[in-house]
Write a structure and sequence with these properties.
heterodimer, A: about 150 residues, alpha+beta, Sufe protein. Chain: A, three-stranded antiparallel beta sheet, 3 strands, about 20% strand, globular, disordered C terminus, B: about 400 residues, alpha/beta, Aspartate Aminotransferase, domain 2, Aspartate Aminotransferase, domain 1, 2 domains, seven-stranded mixed beta sheet, about 40% helix, about 15% strand, binds pyridoxal-5'-phosphate
Amino acid sequence: MALYSDKVMDHFQNPRNVGKMEDADGVGEVGNAKCGDIMRMYIKVDPATQVITDVKFNTFGCGSAIASSSMATEMIKGKSIHEALKLSNKAVAEALDGLPAHKMHCSVLAEEAVRAAVKDYYDRTGQAYDPAELACDGHCESCGHEH
Amino acid sequence: MNVYADNAATTAVSDTALAAMLPCFQEIYGNPSSLHSPGQRAAERLAAARETFARRLGGDPREITFTSGGSEADNQALRSAAALGARKGKKHIISTEFEHHAILHTLEALEKAGYEVTLLDIPPDGVVTAEQVKDALRPDTCLVSVMFANNEIGTIQPIPEIGRVCREAGVLFHTDAVQAAGHLPIDVQAMDIDLLSLSAHKFHGPKGVGVLYARKGIPLVNVIYGGAQERGKRAGTENIPGICGAAAAFEEACANLEKNAAYLEPLRDKLIAGLTAIPHTVLNGDPKRRLPGNVNVCFEGIEGESLLLLLDGKGIAASSGSACTSGSLDPSHVLLALGRPHEVAHGSLRLSLCEYNTPEEIDYILAEVPGIVSYLREMSPVWDELEQGKRPHLI
Ligand SMILES: Cc1ncc(COP(=O)(O)O)c(C=O)c1O
């Protein structure tokens, strides 16, 4: 279908890092089943280096939601959590060679899922964090989110 | 294998329809309004096409107006009945929650123009009743519009019963028969239908051709103004190739209606049985009172667009009522009207068959769908929660 770029179709049909992670150090879930998209992201973090050593995702949603999750996991794997927090929805969409305008919210969900997973990691490990670093940037048009 | 199972969206033009159209491009290309012979030859074809629709619907050729499709016929039917009602001081219209947007959006426009609209609730089986219509009637009701068969879930409405209720009350009755025409028997006399819309591309005719049947004595109001075509009620040089193709397709569909239904119903039922055997899957709409080729199910825990994309990857063309495919944030208004929760409605799949589909294709669909559904469920956090009991199963 020409609705999506080849990159999107590739990540949709062959999603990377898909699955559950039982021993995750942080889990973030965003979206709402009522609206048709839920993303759950699991991260494994090396406590010494603060590097994300493994990532997994589970997504309920359309093709671009699955592709955005897959791309986001690839983009943060092996990065420090601080770098991961800099991942923007635009970067995810660009890495996918673009998303249709009405699907941009899928890339926003991916960005938010990463932040939610990192926040969970901070909470679980009792680390102090700068709320500004985790704040929602207000770009998200996806439903179920209050700004 | 390539399987086209989206015939409710549109169909392939049949050989018969194409053969009727082709001469109209380079041989019979005159303008039917012209006095010369080439024009008159086109006028003859136009008259023959009109006669075909009249005969097959049980009406008179003067009651047939050609339009640009089902949407235009729906718009014109509602606007005409509303205008007639207003002349008598009657500005209340009854319709249903699960009509096509060609009806619902026209009704919204009429509401803005001062009409009052009552939309009947959809019972869980997807079949509204004549009693519901009767109960909603008011002294100022000018029109009842109930679709013959629903385009998403295929359920067939009790048209003769509703027609009788309307006739007894002296209220005009319109039916959007876009999904029914050529697939179910229609007789405007026996069914007390005053206005009816149909569209050629749903029964192997070309796209962009529709018919509005309007009983004698119901004045039509123009949607398109201009020349005097269609007795002045629909301006524009007639789409002769399209109209001839539509008539040939309708004749063929009506002549083969019972045969096609007898062929399709077992295929439909096999698909329904096979798909609903997948756990936490529900059929939408009554299992029997539905179009011979319509299957519509919801799979819990997955989203329809990703399902369609994976099916497309396997060569299967289908449709869904998920928000992502409807182009809005909400899933199909039809599934919501049927009482499906949003979460469930997002996971819908419509397969609509026609007589060109083969039993092998049905087997292929049944071989592919379960694997795709479990693959998506494996990936779905919603399914994970359902399985762990953290979220109650809704179906
Ligand atoms: C029930 C119903 N009404 C109206 C229409 C609109 O018909 P058309 O596409 O010819 O305008 C359709 C088809 O999309 C339909 O299924």
